[in-house]
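Try this one yourself first.
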């Protein structure tokens, strides 16, 4: 359920986090569905932010441009709550 984790739980710079919020990217599943080219078209999002996020995703064996069948699930908020870190 790593794809259901919210991107604001990732260790990212304020700039990268703000760019993701401005692009309405909430979950890691949303993020990995994007390509690098799509991300670079995001306002205020450059190579440095791209590389930062690529490094973080690689720790989870994830990358940009992944095709995830059935993403996003219809009941994504309920599923996300089920797998939320209780701490």
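Now uncover the answer:
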């Amino acid at each position: 359920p790593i794809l259901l984790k919210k991107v604001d739980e990732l260790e990212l710079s304020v700039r990268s986090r703000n760019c993701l919020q401005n692009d309405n990217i909430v979950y890691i599943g949303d993020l990995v569905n994007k390509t690098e080219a799509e991300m670079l078209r995001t306002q205020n999002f450059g190579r440095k932010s791209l590389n930062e996020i690529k490094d973080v995703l690689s720790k989870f064996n994830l990358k940009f441009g992944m095709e995830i069948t059935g993403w996003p699930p219809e009941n994504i908020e309920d599923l996300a709550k089920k797998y939320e870190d209780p701490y």
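Discussion: Residues 2-63 form a domain with the DNA polymerase; domain 1 fold (CATH 1.10.150.20). The helical segments are 14-22, 28-33, 36-40, 47-58, 76-82.
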